[in-house]
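[Q] Does anyone have a clean structure-token version of this?
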Amino acid sequence: MVNRSKPEAQVFAGIDVSARELSIAVRCGTEDRAVTTFGNNAAGHKALLAYLLRGNGRSRVCLEASGNYSLDLALTLQAHRQVEVSVVNPRRARRFAESLGERSKTDPVDAGVLCEYAARMPWVAWQPPSSLALRLRAITRAIEALGVMHTQEKNREHALASSQALPAVVIQEMRRHQRYLEHRMERLRREALRLIARDCELDRRFRLMLTVPGIGQTSALQILGELVVLSDTLDARQWVAFSGIDPSQFTSGTSVQKRPRISRGGSRHLRRALYMPALVAVRHAPHLRAFYQRLLSRGKARLQAVVAVMRKLLHALFAMFRSNQSYDGSKLCPIELTNKLAAVA
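[A] Here you go.
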């Protein structure tokens, strides 16, 4: 996503997306049209676009990120030369609604709020990911979902196996289901690897990721599947913000001093993908282990230190992709500097 200068826009619109319906609020100059609904399907998208362009003016459309429910609509709107699209974080849209004093939350109300957002707020244009990026992300998220199901089945099997009073056939069926899930995950991994091998840039990034301690093939696929949809114009801090592991401060005067927390405002999939590599890195990567121990010596909780390592890994990946160099822990977190800071602390 990039900031655009503000050209003349005659129409502002906000679209609330649900599984079956689209509610659109439109403002043409000083006139507000009544909220209208369309079906969330190909025919509804075409009808909505025609309704939006009735005045033949340039339109700016704002909608919340609603996963797969909003993707086809955003792509349809973005493809038209008279339409600019901005896809905003739902939490940001909700905070904006509260700033307007809006207490209710309904589809028409949300559409009106998003229309106000499009008209008032600095414009950030949405950059659609490539079809290859969307395919890779869909596959890696499917692998992640199957992995969650596999873990749940293993936990159920362990619980059932602890009692001899329960029938063995149930445990056998659970083990059979686990093997089925493993087969499906392996099939998707092969497809993801084929997609990566067809693209020189993705293949380069994937190979660089495998040089990082703690990142194996599975973790590399999950992380790359989330990073591939990001614009090349973003910097490392924006990557961290996208992952939702950026620190959030909460202080006021001298009386309110809450502990810093991560914002959790970004992709939970990327946070989950970074967690296990960070745990492995603090055990097997000397520089990151020293960094982790230094944070613990300064009174940080273990989870806080692990999250800091996750941020370090993300910064490392950003630099590696830009410089086309393999992982070098001495550049990311020099042991000499780490030890010196630890001694001072």
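[Q] Thanks! Anything notable?
[A] The radius of gyration is 24 Å.
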